[in-house]
Amino acid sequence: MAERGDSLRISTTTNFSRRLDKFSSSRFYQMTYIGVPLIVGGLIVKREDDHFRGLRNEYLPRFNRHLDDYMQYAPAAVMLGMKVAGVQSRSSWGRMLVSDAFSALLMGGVVNTLKQTTNVERPDGSNKHSFPSGHTATAFMTATMFTKEYGHKSPWVGVGAYSVATATGLMRMANNKHWLSDVLTGAGIGILSTEVGYYFADLIFREKGINRFANENMFDRMDKPSFVSLYLGLNIPLSGYDIDEEMEFRTSSGSSAGVEGAYFFNPYVGVGGRFTVSNTLIIVNEERAENNTFDAISLCGGSYFSYPLSSRWLIGSKLLGGYVHYPQLELTDRSVSSRSGFCMGSGVSLTFKAKEYYGIRFFLDYNLLPSHSRNSGEYMNMLTLGSSFMITF
Hints:
Residues 97-198 form the Phosphatidic acid phosphatase type 2/haloperoxidase domain. By secondary structure, the chain is of the alpha+beta class. 39% of the residues lie in helices and 32% in strands.
């Protein structure tokens, strides 16, 4: 009976994993699994745009570069260069140009329609055509085109293309031209437009002008889930503390950005770390919202844990400890000097392996932070909810 029960549990787990992988491999899912969540995520974080802009204003207040004007086209330029050089791609010239034309028309139509109808003012106040980010939509559209045509050559083609696209979106925010919601929605539109454009071309050309390559994306449930990721999250404070006997300090929601990575010794256990900068808005004595923000810079390391639900879906956790530094805090009627201390953290995550070498991770982290003021011995409790783009290895 015990053996029969064990066999039944194994069979149930295997069937669940197969169904999960089958759904994840469907054409509809492959077309929408990145673009749609990015668009939905952009709409969700729209009400938190001020927090992420505050992060930019705190750490990059004078940033002004025009490299993003050119970076948006970089993946397309490389793709065309390789095509002209005779490097074999997925599509013939005709099929590729039709696919890309459909993609560009869809992307341009959606972006320009939304810009003209939503009337969202840019962070710098220059005009009311902020939503969504056209630069970011173009960058992710060209990155997806390049990956579709030459991703079979190396998984690093996609990693490089999407890294350039991500950098373009980040620079749009650093240049104070776009809100986070603009960038996320633009990225989603760029990817989804390309997927639909290539789908339309596939319907027209069918098997004409296409090269079929062996599937390079080989997923194994027992792969080591080592990763490096771009970390972006919304801070949700769970507590405040007394600065002194007369003043209680509380933070509202804020934002965090940074990098995180871990090396796994096997499919289940690894070591890694996380570097983040964050800011949150300040409320004192339940009455006054301060103009300045509560800033923190942290570096933590520790153990990472993972469990594969299937070959492409994983759940994870971690236990971290490390160092946090608070810059000097200027309140209306006093200053709180800079301070450093020991922090601890944990969290849970859900990871999807989009391709063999990159994926998406959704996380909910908990951090226990020391007090900013030397006159208070109270620790702060903070949740961070967010997602990250991962390079896996």
